Structure formats: structure tokens, C-alpha cells
């Protein structure tokens, strides 16, 4: 493991990997070209994310390490010319998490806990589990909310729907290590990361559907959680 990589690479599925760390800035020409158009702070974060993702690819799929990483139709990173493969990137403070699967869908999310956590946010994400978590010490409660949120967010990232998939409605019991949301299997990497870090993996969809069909319709559409817990995206 590189000194810059504090978690992984971890095998999370057949052909699926996750890594997290600070990441060295990418020197790939296409990454540098894309960064020029971004504000300085965002370019710096973008290059660190691309750098760690390329380190992961160099380790687990060397022929792909030099591939162009382009935005898909939803603005999410995608390996050019490889429709069956998937990658995902998440940022929280100075850390980056990256995921890759050779065949299928994958999402990763990393979140430093925000202390204290608000009761409204906890009820939105945890639903019936909220009272038990809110009874914990503030730091522990914030950690558990962050773990739940990373699993929920990883699911909708794997499905390619983002917040439109209403991740706060995905049932992730506090303290759990994994579960399922439709065809997606989510994993909380509790044994590997001190910072809440989760991923979700699923098959390539051949019917053109996305994850939006997995959320039950409701008469009144719930608003998204307060932004304080949401990680900033690439």
C-alpha cells in the first residue's frame, strides 16, 4: 500500500475494489486539461481524486491506468471506451475514496462525521432507528449517522441517480455492515476505515433502467437532508 493510501486497495466484489487516502495529484494530460477549467480549489481536489483513482487502476487493472476518465451523461466519472466497467470517487475534507469494478456498477462514499448531528437529520436518514442513535454520546451518534449516510449515498451513486434516488429512504440499520437495495449490495467498511466509508456494487443493467424505480413513490416528496452531512462532489 502506498503511504498516501490509508485504506486498501480492498476487494469488495469480484473485480471490484475500493481505496481511500489523500492521493497524489494526477499528472495525466487529459486530467490536467480538464482541471484548467475549474476554480483552483476544485481543480486541486479534482486532480487528487483522479490521482488516487489512477493509482488504484495501476494496482488492480494496469492496462486501464492511462485511460481517459470522462464524465457520463450525469456528470459522473466513466472510463472512456469501457461501457461495462465503472468507477466512483468521493471527497470529504482532505481525504478521497475511489472505487472500480471491471464489470458492473459501483458507488463509493466517504464522510467525516459532523458533530453534533441534528435530530431532524437523524430522523430523516434513520427513521425508526433514530431514537436509539440520538441517545448515544454526540460524537458516537454523529459517527453512526455518517456511516448510514455513506451507505445510502453509495447506493444511489452505483445506480447513477444521485439525490434523485432519494438515498435517505434506503433502509440502512445503524451498526450494520451490509445489506441490499434492489440489485445493489452495500457494504460499510467498518473494519478497514476509521472514517465512515461505504460502497455499493451491482450488475450492469441491460434494460436501460436506473435506480429510480427502487424508491417507493410517496404522495408528498420528502426534501433532501440538510447539506451539512453531504460530501462535496467532484
Quick recap:
α1 (29-35) packs antiparallel against α2. With 234 residues, the protein is α+β, with helices and mostly antiparallel strands.
Structural class: alpha+beta
Report the sheet-strand fraction.
15-25%
Q: Which regions are unreliable across 5 or more consecutive residues at pLDDT < 50? A: 215-234
Overall geometric form: globular
Number of helices: 5
CATH superfamily of the largest domain: 4'-phosphopantetheinyl transferase domain
| Rg, nearest Å | 17 Å
Largest sheet properties: 4 strands, antiparallel
Kindly, what is the distance between the CA atoms of the first and last residues, rounded to a whole number of angstroms? Answer: 24 Å
CATH topology of the largest domain: Ribosomal Protein L22, Chain A
Strand element count: 10
CATH architecture of the largest domain: Alpha-Beta Complex
Q: What would CATH call the class of the largest domain?
A: Alpha Beta
Mean pLDDT: 87
What string, H for helix and E for strand, traces the elements in order? EEHHEEEEEHHHEEE
Give the strand order of the largest sheet, numbering strands 1, 2, ... along the chain: 1-2-6-5
- Name the helicity range: 25-40%
The overall number of domains is 2
